[in-house]
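Ticket #222: bound-state structure for pyridoxal-5'-phosphate.
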Amino acid sequence: MISHANEIAESVKRILETIPSEVTLVAAAKTRTLGEIEAAIQAGVTHIGYNYIQEALPVIQTIGSRVTWHMIGHLQRNKAKLAVQYFDMIETVDSWRLAETLDRRCANVGKAMSVLVEINSGRESNKTGLLPEDVDELIRKMSALEHLHVEGLMTMGPRFGNPEASRPYFRATRAAFERLGGLNLPNVTMQYLSMGMSNSYRIAIEEGANIVRIGTRLFGER
Ligand SMILES: *Cc1c(COP(=O)(O)O)cnc(C)c1O
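RESOLUTION: The complex was predicted; output attached.
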């Protein structure tokens, strides 16, 4: 355990040294133990991402607001209330129905929530996220939701293949990010572009990402 904590600390430091200071590292924590997560925090991780509400809740309850919590997995509407209660940013809004539900849940508790819109840039049918051609319409509608602040875009990129194969999808997402920012819609500021994982984060940063979500390279193989 001790040596694994040391390995995690080394990995965190290495990544924090190699990414530009304006890029936020989100540690993708699915399947990791509390000890592993604490080791990452000790080493300088300040943002943690979870895919599943059920897995995240006990960890967030234990660790609390020492770090910023990102929802990075597909969010079901029946979990919107918990997501609003426990997370600081929801990166995976991909439908009007979800956006509307989140807004209502935020209104109930008087919270303003930072959200990103997830784009299925690789157009993979087994993946969540909005098709690129549908993003404008959703963001225009979301602009009317008082309790959600649309702060950027998130994408996974294609799951398979050489990380270099993700580059065109990252580039297209960056172009959408720039274009949407130029619309100057109320409640919409294109500040965060979340793309890149363990094998692709360097390419994502080259293509403009300022949030990277990294699991394996911090914690080891799952
Ligand atoms: C697991 C996960 C990551 C990190 O993946 P690694 O390849 O382990 O770095 C990033 N984003 C999302 C949405 C994930 O589910």
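RESOLUTION NOTES: The two ends are 15 Å apart (CA to CA).
TICKET STATUS: resolved
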